[in-house]
Amino acid sequence: MSHNSFGHLFRVTTWGESHGIAIGCVVDGTPPGIRFSEADIQAFLDKRRPGQSRYTTQRQEPDQVRVLSGVMPGDSEGELVSTGTPIALEIQNVDQRSKDYSEIARRYRPGHADITYDMKYGVRDYRGGGRSSARETATRVAAGAIARRIVPGLVVRAALVQIGTIAIERERWDWAEIDRNPFFCPDAETAERWAAHLDAVRKQGSSVGAVVEVVAEGVPAGLGAPIYGKLDSDIAANLMSINAVKGVEIGDGFAAATLSGEDNADEIRIGGDGQPEFLSNHAGGVLGGISTGQPMVARFAVKPTSSILTPKRSINADGEEVDVMTKGRHDPCVGIRAVPIGEAMVACAIADHYLRHRGQTGRG
Amino acid sequence: MSHNSFGHLFRVTTWGESHGIAIGCVVDGTPPGIRFSEADIQAFLDKRRPGQSRYTTQRQEPDQVRVLSGVMPGDSEGELVSTGTPIALEIQNVDQRSKDYSEIARRYRPGHADITYDMKYGVRDYRGGGRSSARETATRVAAGAIARRIVPGLVVRAALVQIGTIAIERERWDWAEIDRNPFFCPDAETAERWAAHLDAVRKQGSSVGAVVEVVAEGVPAGLGAPIYGKLDSDIAANLMSINAVKGVEIGDGFAAATLSGEDNADEIRIGGDGQPEFLSNHAGGVLGGISTGQPMVARFAVKPTSSILTPKRSINADGEEVDVMTKGRHDPCVGIRAVPIGEAMVACAIADHYLRHRGQTGRG
Amino acid sequence: MSHNSFGHLFRVTTWGESHGIAIGCVVDGTPPGIRFSEADIQAFLDKRRPGQSRYTTQRQEPDQVRVLSGVMPGDSEGELVSTGTPIALEIQNVDQRSKDYSEIARRYRPGHADITYDMKYGVRDYRGGGRSSARETATRVAAGAIARRIVPGLVVRAALVQIGTIAIERERWDWAEIDRNPFFCPDAETAERWAAHLDAVRKQGSSVGAVVEVVAEGVPAGLGAPIYGKLDSDIAANLMSINAVKGVEIGDGFAAATLSGEDNADEIRIGGDGQPEFLSNHAGGVLGGISTGQPMVARFAVKPTSSILTPKRSINADGEEVDVMTKGRHDPCVGIRAVPIGEAMVACAIADHYLRHRGQTGRG
Amino acid sequence: MSHNSFGHLFRVTTWGESHGIAIGCVVDGTPPGIRFSEADIQAFLDKRRPGQSRYTTQRQEPDQVRVLSGVMPGDSEGELVSTGTPIALEIQNVDQRSKDYSEIARRYRPGHADITYDMKYGVRDYRGGGRSSARETATRVAAGAIARRIVPGLVVRAALVQIGTIAIERERWDWAEIDRNPFFCPDAETAERWAAHLDAVRKQGSSVGAVVEVVAEGVPAGLGAPIYGKLDSDIAANLMSINAVKGVEIGDGFAAATLSGEDNADEIRIGGDGQPEFLSNHAGGVLGGISTGQPMVARFAVKPTSSILTPKRSINADGEEVDVMTKGRHDPCVGIRAVPIGEAMVACAIADHYLRHRGQTGRG
């Protein structure tokens, strides 16, 4: 058991604090012969990197990843080949603004983990949120880049589908759009509405929540396992472990509670290729915890950034009542940067179950 | 790793199929000196037991639990004392209707795990759903009864808060009501509406989904751990592992996505007892994955029962297209019986984290 | 983590005390489609069963195993087919002599775990040693019978190679002999010497230690893993977990410490089948924690039975100094019954690594 | 599960190859408030560091450790305080002799893991042994330095007690001696004999095996757990995971097989402090897998270094028969440097069980 690891056969252990020397992770269990490059990982890190638009925090971090172990040179320039031994990934912390932490060190910012870390440990790294900072998620994105290579044909993509109360129109969904706006929004019109809305939120020093949808295509049928090794159960845990996430759903999710059995049934026929073909996907690609071969669909809700300019009532470590306001760098909607993180966490869960399925059944 | 275990220091491993000889679980890691009786466990099993109203399946199972190991006699009649060794709990299967399974053995019921178990394993126990049957959840409820005894002062209760599109009125919430209607509904008026609605659903041979809310009070502050050992992450996994669950949320959950940072902030003051006091609980009792000492609030969505009287298109194991209709015993809303199961899964997660916290910090 | 489980992909969780209602185990992770019968398991249990000669304890237990879950009927009478879900095995306790435990309940027998269980837990099942009784090992033997079926071509056998100071002559090793004497001795002449020696030991109410050697043939090359998943490391843990075991060695073991690098080297050539062929097996079938394809050879030392007729100085739970002598059933050499247990523990380790290897590499 | 992690609540994950950029480990589960410095860790690393005498390999590595996460500054210069989050330790590889690996890349050195890594993975880092190099053990020693701080009063020391056939005289055992000779030998006279012997071995380009004894004092009674969480079982696995180890024993170990029950019994009296006092320690400090409070005594056998100057028959990756001789840096007795590694592995096992015991029982 480790509080800082996830996965079983594809197992990721992360370490590091927001303002320490570096952050990193150890990716264990990668099959031998998997080919990737630092540039492949970097491409995903660059999607998550802060400071790329005015809608995310202005912290400037190059987030340059280094592969320290577990690989040999591949056939082409920069290509690496996994050897089956643990792959250590490391990212230096660069933009650790040297500043005076005496004020923040003892104040508990509402909505942050400051108070609970102190309740639990009695000591914490208060610089930039320490271990509870979203900075840790960079290592997940790096691990996810390797996970994607493990399952042949797997494609995991995510999109922001709601900011505050403004949701996308699903009929306008176009995956190509997600690279054309700073929100990973698959609906160009909604992206424009979000831009206007977030500008207002940002100017008020306020923040807003969001919903992210992750879709995994090319998931082989048969992944997942009864009863506590369900694929959707592991995906739920992985997504809920992302900072600020308050809800997770699979397929129709909470809307399934409002359906009748007739409407919720995904009927099955034999497809043109002689394989089972589902006529709908209310289930989100999983039945009884095991993948059906349909796209896996998961959504998660991200709460509004707790760091806001409005002073809020709180206490400090001395038990005194204080007002707390977050100055400095500001992220009006942390849900945006959660998009590549959600992709990575789903990819890791699928890679893990791919190996687990192969272990037990010899298939895959 | 085990696909049939959950928890780490308080660890439950379950076994058994719907129509096998028995079902059971091994509860490992219980501290020595915990006092309970078979009757304590039985009381929770009786809440989950089918056939108690016309709104749940008419399968008749006494669900009589036996404690086979891990205990010594206590001081009073029937009292048991845990010895710290594994506690084996067993429930005989009684109502295994002897019938002809030749038809169901090779047909895949839409919405059930029949097809995915076959995709994964190539062999399955098709009698009554086998391992994927909700019957397995009886063992979770039994384990939960022990979990409740481990954390001093812990009270875990759950209620059904929505059936189909009919939600309760939160102002009418009265915990005393949940024992007065067959739905575990905390709102007497809504319970009456549900009764009428479910009667109609049942007569049509249809089914409907539901939402369950679990509230844990008396959770010590400091339980849970960064980053992949978050209390809410483990609760999400535990709840998502329950049959037919499609979504999980903590505190405000998906509604948090629509809030501003100002509205979502749980401000903190010093309470009358000199301890931190939160002025609201949008977070649902957890910040950064660690409990705040407030009530833990989790909700989960249950899809409508897949077994319905309306024929649905499917295929069989021979790759032929067939129509499937579920005859016989029928459960119009499986969400009802999910209430005690949800309680048990949350209680187990909290007990596990109570021991994990004590292990690392020596506190608790 | 569980204190009562071992293995990862082939995972066994055991429960039960010497004088409780029953003992049992849950075998999780068995691949689907493995064929076996209760009679197959029973055959191994019968080897371990006490009371079969005057050299082992006279407790009379039929040790009849029942398979409660995880299987469907096979093609022939009694044949079972694993479904991939957990297999629960159960053995009723029959010979729980009803007697007065008031004396033993509070006295610590030297060499037994009585005192340490009380130091740890403060409460224990003192009847017949409770959880620390060798009775628990019956469930390991049952699990081992399934493990043997998982790896095609695997044959795991063990023999007693030393009792007290009397070791076998290796030149006389004949596997056929182990079924012809009550010691699992591969050397007929030594078996006779042991018979005479043990008769004397038994009459004196004394006891003696022993050494068991386990040989696994048909282990595929490539099982095991760096660094903490070494096959020999897991075998060492498995064997050391058997009651009364005080030492474990692989291949030449402690004798390797006395060798020169030249003498210890297992040279390699290309065999007649074009495959690597080792010219010796000092390594015992494992290099760097990974199997070579040669026979795996492990030995373990069993201390003399602690229950003897000579009174020994000890204390009781009240902190009083007492003399303790074990009356009643007596086992002069527990090492004898450790033979089938050692086989089972090695078979389980190999089956687990077979699945782990297949999971990571897709081979096997 | 991870093939590169050990421990449960005190959990260490290591990574890195002999000739990669760096090696390191993540130490997870350390309680908050543990105080140590990089210098503390360095002191243990310096004991293991090669090139310190003519009896160990001449590879020159400063083995300078850096603490990258999981700590805050303590009260004095260089002091660190653990925060309860993962502690990442890293050591740069400096002396990676740039040389031509074309010869070694495809030849299997007898006694090394070259062939089995290729059998398993089909690809390996052949530079200096890659992942199978003893270089990885530096990270264990670093982790062990933290483990020592977790259990109050714990002192773990080890000594070399045998080289080849030359064993120490136990009556001359003096812990002060181990720092006065290059062998960690507690017997000054034997150390002189070893010096002469090893000089001869080294000149011949040969090697020799050894036996290491680890003694842990200050282990609280009650650590360890039935049945598969036995303290001695975990110590056996930890020690067997060290490179070149072929045997492990606890207390009297294999010699216990030759004893009678009367001679093996550790009798118990009430000591001057009113606590149980054992009159001997054949058991090596553990009964039924649980610590007695006596010193924990474990020994392990290290095979002779496989790298020798005498050519040995082997094959290469192309299936051709070749002769292999190890040129260059040479370590006549790897057992010497195994002494601090053995200490570290035992310390880690005890720290892990200390936390596990505290988790389950609330004591410790």
From TrEMBL, chains A, B, C, D:
Pfam families cross-referenced by the UniProt entry: Chorismate_synt
UniProt xrefs under InterPro entries: Chorismate_synth, Chorismate_synth_AroC_sf, Chorismate_synthase_CS
Enzyme class, spelled out: lyase
Single GO term (MF): chorismate synthase activity
A GO CC term attached to the entry: cytosol
Residue numbers binding FMN: R131, S132, S133, N243, A244, G288, K303, P304, T305, S306, S307, R329
Essential cofactor(s): FMNH2
EC number: 4.2.3.5
The reaction(s) this protein catalyses: 5-O-(1-carboxyvinyl)-3-phosphoshikimate = chorismate + phosphate
Cofactor mode of binding and number, as noted: Reduced FMN (FMNH(2)).
UniProt binding sites for NADP(+): R48, R54
Keyword Transmembrane part of the UniProt annotation: no
The protein's assembly and partners: Homotetramer.
Described function: This reaction introduces a second double bond into the aromatic ring system.
Name used for this protein in its record: Chorismate synthase
Organism name: Aurantimonas marianensis
